[in-house]
Each structure stands twice: as structure tokens, then as C-alpha cells.
Amino acid sequence: MLINSAVYDDGRMVAEPELDDVSEALEATQTGFVWIALRDPTDDELSRLQHELELPPLAVEDARKGHQRPKVEEYGDITFAAMHLLEMGPDGLEVGEVHVFVGPRFVVSVRHRSNQGFLGVRGRAEREPELLRQGPGFVLYALMDAVVDRYLPLMDGIDAELEALEETMFVPQQDRQAVVQKLFALKQRLMTLRHAVTPLLEVTAKLHGGRVPMVCKAMQDYFRDVYDHLVRLQASIDAARETIIAATQVNLTLVTIDESLVTKRLAAWAAIFAASTALAGIWGMNFEKMPELKWAFGYPMALGTIALVSGALYWRFKRLAWL
Q1: 102 neighbors 81 (Cβ within 8 angstroms)
Q2: What pLDDT score does 160 carry?
Q3: What tens digit of pLDDT does each residue of 240-276 get?
Q4: d(CA 231, CA 208)
Q5: Is residue 134 a contact partner of residue 173, using CB atoms and an 8 Å limit?
Q6: How far apart are CA 223 and CA 18, in angstroms?
Q7: Where are the domains of the chain?
């Protein structure tokens, strides 16, 4: 589906052509470029654009199928970029994609399986005509910067949930199984974010310094800024991953400690009842030669002895913190 189509010349929009009129609109201006945005396009729409702008077939096939790893590829003077779009859903992070074709006189963004639009990016670019005059390279930077900026709140959310879990981890009577489940869910979200950030970090490093695609030469300082954001994100992801691993190990240790405490309590009560049972068993044998059987205070003495031994054991186990 076509979301937007505009021709820009000298930083200003001069036309809004249909897909079949893109080449004619570009011929009407010698220095302008066209910016086309598609969402979940049909094969026919991609084929028409491929014909109009002479897009590379392999890149078009990638954009048609989707499910691509974040990457930047060069096809002559055309650069193709694939990035993941992440948003929170009911079952965790949902992954969409945006594929961007960048040529000397055009930018085509193709969005798949995502509700995150880029109208704000277009509005920002139109408010900065001095940067829009830089051409398609600036648009690629603006799109990439918007994608990376959307990763930051997701990382902040993971950090906040992880801190909240750490604060409640040592609360008595905590449901350890629920904590482990939450930690595992956080780890899954973190890995999804990592799969979006790490490959993009690798390819963004090739967009500044040394040999870079022709359309990116004038925007190298801006791509370096995107690279710095990705480096910080990668560091945060690594730190959160280590924290999750440590928190999981601590939680499992606490489970072991809780089980040990329960075992000690059971052992202490078993010892107390074992002593009582032993004494009661001795006096319950009913031998005739047992002196206390004929004694008026024999029964109270037996009960007192049982209570005394049980009380002594209870006091001892309490001192050992077993009870």
C-alpha cells in the first residue's frame, strides 16, 4: 500500500506523483529526488517501482519476502538497507521490518508487519530543508536514526523491570518460580532487541570513515552519531544480559537455601517427636518390674520427662536457627 510519495527539490516538496509517474516527475526536475513510502506492498507495486527506478532484482526480492537480517548492501550506485522495527505486543516484542532503497535521486522505504510509521520523520525532514538538500543520504540517516531511537525506550523498560525484580528478589515468601519466569521473559525480549541492534551496529560502522556508499558520503558525521547510539545500546544490552544471568543464579541459590531451611525444620520437628515417641514407647511396654508403674506420680513424671526433653530439643534447635 502506498503511504506517501513526494518529489523534493532544493529541500522543498514540488510534486506528489503516483507510482507509474515517478520517472516523469523526476525528469521534470534536474536536481530533485523522490521519496516513496510503502506499507506491506503487493508484488505489483514492487514490480512497478522496480521498473520505474531500475531497482536491483535481488534487493527487491528481499523486500518482497521480508524476514531479513539487519544489513546494508550496495548494488552499484544503489544502497539497500534492512532494519528491524520493534514494538511491545501482548506476548512480548513484535518484530517488523523496514527496507530502504537509496539511489542518487530516490528513496523507497518498504515497511512490513509493523504499525510504526515514519510520518514524523518526513515532517522533521521537511522542517529542515537545509538538511533535506543533502539528498537521499539524509533521508536514509533520518530513517535509521528514528529506528534506533525507538529501541531506547524498549531498553529502558527492560532495565526498569529488571531493577524492580532485583528489589523484590530477597523478599521473604517470594514466589521463586514466578521470578524465574519473569527473568526468562526479560531475557527473550533482550535477545530480540540484541538481534536487531548487533547486526545494525556492524553495518553502520561502514557508513562513516574510509570507503562508504556514495549516497552516504555527505552524511558521515550523522551516521557516526547513529553508530554511537548503537554502541551505547549494545553496552546496555550486554550489561542487562549479565545482570539477568546473575539474578537467575541468585534466585536458584535462594531456592536451594529455602529448601535447606525447610529440610532443617522438618528434621528438627522429627527429632523432637522421635524423642517423645521413644520415651512413650519405653513406658508403654508394661513390664511388671518397672518401679514407676505402682507409683502414684509415675504418669505425671513420664509426661513431665517427655515435655522436658522435647522442650530442651526445641530450645537447642531454636538456638541453631533450625526453627
Answers
A1: yes
A2: 93
A3: 999 999 888 888 887 777 777 777 777 777 777 777 7
A4: 14
A5: no
A6: 31
A7: 2-255, 262-319
| All cell numbers assigned to 117 | 510509521
The Cα 47–Cα 99 span in angstroms is: 15
Indicate the length of the chain as a whole number. Answer: 323
**Rounded Cα gap, residues 216 and 197, in angstroms:** 20
CATH superfamily of 2-255: CorA soluble domain-like (3.30.460.20)
The cell 507510482 sits on which residue? 19
Q: What share of the chain is helix, strand, coil (3-state, %, to 5)?
A: 65, 15, 20
Q: CA-CA distance, 192 to 207, in Å (whole number)?
A: 24
- Model's pTM, two decimal places? 0.79
| Cell of residue 6, nine digits | 513526494
Apex CA 236: angle with CA 181 and CA 137, to 5°?
125
Q: What is the largest CA-CA distance in the chain?
A: 125
